[in-house]
Amino acid sequence: MAKQRPSDTVRLLAQVAGYGLVLALGAFALEWLDYQHLVRQLSRETYVVVIAILFTVLGLWAGRKLTRTPAGPTPPPLEIARRLGVTRRECEVLALLAEGQTNKEIARNLGMSPNTVKTHLSRLFEKLDAQRRTQAVQRARKLLLIP
User: Fold this and answer.
1) Low-confidence residues in the chain, pLDDT < 70
2) Dist. CA 34–CA 44, nearest whole Å
3) In the Cβ-directed half-sphere of 40, how many Cα atoms lie within 13 Å?
4) CA 8 to CA 130: how far, in whole Å?
5) In 1-147, which ranges are continuous DSSP H helix?
6) Alpha-carbon 24 to chain mean position
7) Looking at residue 1, what is its pLDDT?
8) 47 and 37 in contact (C-beta within 8 Å)?
9) Three-state DSSP class for 74?
10) Handedness of CA 126, 130, 133, 137 (dihedral sign)
11) Is residue 129 helix, strand or coil?
C-alpha cells in the first residue's frame, strides 16, 4: 500500500473540511428558510426555487471538484516525439495509422506517395521498436505520442 505524503494528507483534510463547511452552510440555509417560512409565510414556490438553485450550485461545485484531473508531469507529445527522434510528419502518419487508414489513404490525406508512407512507417517501426502496424500504434499510445 502506497504511503501518502504529508502534503496529500493536508490537502485531503482541507477538502473534507471544505465539504463539511458546505454541508453546514446548506443546513443553516435550510433552517433559515424554515424560519422564514414560519415567520413570513413566503410562498412555497419561492422555497422550491431557492432550494433548487442551492442544490444546482452544490452539484456543479461538487462535480467540478470530483472530476478535476490533477495536472501531472506528463510532457507534451511533441516533447516525447523529439526525444524519440520522431519527426512531425511521422507523427502525422502515425495519427492516421492509428485511425486505421491504409497506406494509400494516408498518402492521399497527406499529399504524398504510398512509397513515402512506407518509408515513414518503416522508420516509425524502428524508432518505436515495433514489428507490425498495431504494435506501433500500441507503443505510440503507451508513450503518449497519440491519444
Assistant:
1) 1-6, 38-41, 69-76
2) 11
3) 10
4) 39
5) 6-40, 44-67, 77-84, 88-98, 103-110, 114-128, 133-142
6) 31
7) 45
8) yes
9) coil
10) negative
11) coil
Helices 103-110 + 88-98 axis angle, to 10: 130
CA dihedral 51, 54, 58, 64 (to 10 degrees): 130
Distance from C-alpha of 134 to C-alpha of 14, rounded to nearest angstrom: 45
> Within 13 Å, how many C-alpha atoms sit on residue 112's CB side?
15
pLDDT digits (tens, 9 = 90+) for 54-79: 899 988 988 888 887 665 555 567 77
Contact 81/92 with Cβ under 8 angstroms?
no
